[in-house]
Structures are given as C-alpha cells and as structure tokens.
Automatic annotation (TrEMBL):
Signal peptide extent: none
Entry keyword Hydrolase: yes
EC number, UniProt record: 4.2.1.44
Protein name: AP endonuclease
InterPro entries according to UniProt: IolE/XylAMocC-like, Xyl_isomerase-like_sf, Xyl_isomerase-like_TIM-brl
Record domain Xylose isomerase-like TIM barrel: where: 29-299
Alphabetized UniProt keyword annotations: Endonuclease, Hydrolase, Lyase, Nuclease, Plasmid
One annotated GO molecular function: endonuclease activity
Keyword ATP-binding carried by entry: no
Pfam families to which the protein is assigned, alphabetical: AP_endonuc_2
Amino acid sequence: MTMKITGAPCSWGVDDPKNPHLPPWSRVLDEAREAGYAGLELGPYGYMPLDAGVLGAELDRRGLSLVAGTIFDDLVSPANLPALLRQADEIGALLKALPSPEPLPGQRQATPYLVIIDWGHRERDLAAGRSDAAPRLSDADWARMVDHIRQIADLARERHGIRSVIHPHAGGHIEFADEIRRIAADIPDATAGLCLDTGHLHYSGMDPAAWLREFAHRLDYVHFKDVDAARHREVLSGAPVPFFEACARGVMCPIGQGALDYGRIRATLQDIGYQGYITVEQERDPRHADTSLRDVRLSREHLRSIGFQ
C-alpha cells in the first residue's frame, strides 16, 4: 500500500479568500513543512499567488509540492459559468507549470488534481448535514450543473492535462447519498473521478468506510478529517447552523480525537487497494489559526501511529 499524506490551507481557516483574518500563505507553507506533510493543496482561488515562478520558488525552498487546486464555487447558476471556466484555466495552467508531485505506484490517475466543489447556496448551507431538510435541485438545474462540471473537467484535461475530481461537500448540492450516486452516474469516469472526504461523509450521515468501498472504482483522491461527536450532535439538534459556522464552533477536530475510526478506514483503503495521495483537513475560524500547527501535527502523528507513512 502506497499512500502519501498532504495538507490543505483550510486547516488554517482558509476557505473564503476575502476573509480579512486569513494567515499569510507563506505561514501556511512554513507550518505544513514543519508538521511533516509531503505537500499541500493550493486552497481557494485567490489565496495563493497564481504566478508559477513566485509560488514554485517558495514551494521548492520548503521541499513541498502541490497535490491539487480547487474550484469551490456555485456550479449551478448559468451566469457563473465564465468565472468557473476562467478558474479552471488559470488553476490548470499553474498546476501544469509547477513540478508534479511524486507519482506513486498504483495510482489510478496522476496528480495534481482539480477538485470541483459546489458551494454558495444559502438554502443548502443551512441544511448541511440534514438530508431530510435539504432542498434538491430541479432536474433542469441538476442537468445544468452536470454540464458545467463536464465543461470544467474537459477544459482542465484538454488544455492542461489535469485530472478533475468531484468532491461531495456538506452544504453544497452534491452532499447526500442520492446526490453522490447521481453525480457518479451522470459524470463518467473518463471525464472526472471522485474525491471522497471522510469528515464530510460522516457529517452528512454516511459511513466513510462503506462509501470508500462502494466507490473504489472511481476513487482518485481522498480527504481525511475528524468530527467532534458532541459538537456535531449540538449543531444538528437545534436551529439550522451553516457549515462553516459549525466549523468555527469546533465541529472539526484533529484526527484521532473525534468520532471516526481511522483504523477501520485504513483497513478499508488497504482492502480496496487504494494507492495515492490523502489530504488532511480541519476547517476552522482563521482567527484560531494560532492552533493550526499544533492540530495538523496531532493529525499527522496519529496517522503515522496507526500505519500511515
């Protein structure tokens, strides 16, 4: 089994690039290296520089690589398509211009990836984790979202040689079991793979190990996070709580301190023969980024203690 652990800027609270409290991106690079991660993701569009010369020099100085870039945006609205395609083009060009992460034996698809996440719908954000309360897209809106994903993935592949992966995410229109199965059926593997996130699956009422097994044939990339059981019950039991507000309350915790059984998850990945990169995340309020290095170290140390190298 060959797996390599990387990190992501969201563990420093970096989700909205317009948030005035974000830590400097250079600090995220420094602390990812200090915590022992092999590389990291680019983070949301607009956070790290898109200049390959500038960013490449800073990554190289720290011995890091970029495993993925992300489109974290409204995939449904027709007016947003030009912005989505611009992001795909600019992120794809950057990833192509930088040295690729080390290829791992047995990987389904080579890194780096373009991670595609639907986001930006208030009615779904308020229903994060609550399948019964979450309004589904109409057939017409779903078909438009599928078409947008196809256009993004085609552009990234044809223009830059970058593989796209679809990431189900709490608070977006691809979150629950019916939606994950539907998008996997509507987007063929030749167009895009899947990035399954253990924490989002658990947050939204699914068993991560079971879903990793069900979609082993589409699994290009994996995200790890852990969920504080008490805070999870709290945010789902009362008035609706937007997903990132739940994260600001501490619903995500260092791996090994929450509800997920990472020994079982590791055994599942071994059983299905997963070979590739795994990115650790712990969404938080960026005003608490002073504890990020401590927490990403704890996550890395726990994963190493149970057999992840």
